[in-house]
Amino acid sequence: MKKNIAIITGASSGMGMEFAFQIDCLFTKLDEIWLIARREERLIELSKLLETKTKIIPMDVSNKEQVEDFYTLLNKEQPKLRMLINCAGYGLMGKVEDIPIEEQLGMVDVNVRALTNITYACLPYLTKNARIIQLASAAAFLPQKNFAVYAAGKSYVLSFSRALEEELKPKHIYVTAVCPGPVDTAFFDKADTYGHSLLLKEKTMVSADRVVKKALHDSYKKKQVSVCSPLMQAFMLVTKILPHRFIFFVMRFLK
Ligand SMILES: NC(=O)c1ccc[n+]([C@@H]2O[C@H](COP(=O)([O-])OP(=O)(O)OC[C@H]3O[C@@H](n4cnc5c(N)ncnc54)[C@H](OP(=O)(O)O)[C@@H]3O)[C@@H](O)[C@H]2O)c1
Prior knowledge:
Layout: E1 4-9, H1 14-26, E2 32-37, H2 40-48, E3 53-58, H3 64-77, E4 80-86, H4 101-122, E5 126-135, H5 148-168, E6 174-178, H6 187-191, H7 200-204, H8 208-220, E7 225-226, H9 230-241, H10 244-251
Parallel strand pairs: 1-2, 1-4, 2-3, 4-5, 5-6, 6-7
This protein binds NADP nicotinamide-adenine-dinucleotide phosphate.
């Protein structure tokens, strides 16, 4: 019999791991949660903490051969996919001229190309009323100096997710783009390799638990965009109504 499953990429850490915990508690009718990331040992540790059966898929989502194997696995298993959550991603702060080009293209490969590829691979298996949750970012709302490639990639994720939802709505499949500001995860260990985040980050940071709870609630409500904190909701509004050149000017004074 076909299994009811959820798939989570980036499940070895941060928000992906938190989604696994919350889905495990909320969706008791799932047969399996498929956990994807490169660090297999962390996925194994996570799976021991979950009630739901898991399938551990150690995979680099930007590796062509490994993603082809993922297509093959889906084709073999023919699952009933209830939920796809794309969390795999990373960001690097710093000026475009200061970050090695391979690193910047790596961000595009994981945050943009791989997310598109994994989503495409999963489309045939999504059931009626299935949900897709895509981790974008509040960085998607506005071009950001010293975070240029990351912000541009997240704008893609937001735009892609909203368009995809319009395409999938007739099939009763709903897509939510999650756009948090800074979240307390391992993200910044890597992000600060070539530059530094704004000090403001510390004051605006929220927990992964809170972002995920809101994302699952908004996904249930069929919302296209999930923004966790009132501050980031205000930021989204400001980027919609004020000229971006004016916001850039104000942001020059933020530390
Ligand atoms: N933290 C924030 O402030 C923040 C804010 C807005 C949006 N986001 C977005 O939220 C998502 C989750 O980030 P997080 O904060 O939870 O960071 P995190 O704790 O660093 O988790 C990132 C996850 O992505 C996985 N990953 C990275 N590259 C991968 C690859 N090539 N193949 C497979 N998996 C890969 C990592 O697993 P492995 O290393 O084991 O592969 C890890 O599980 C990202 O898309 C990030 O851009 C984060």
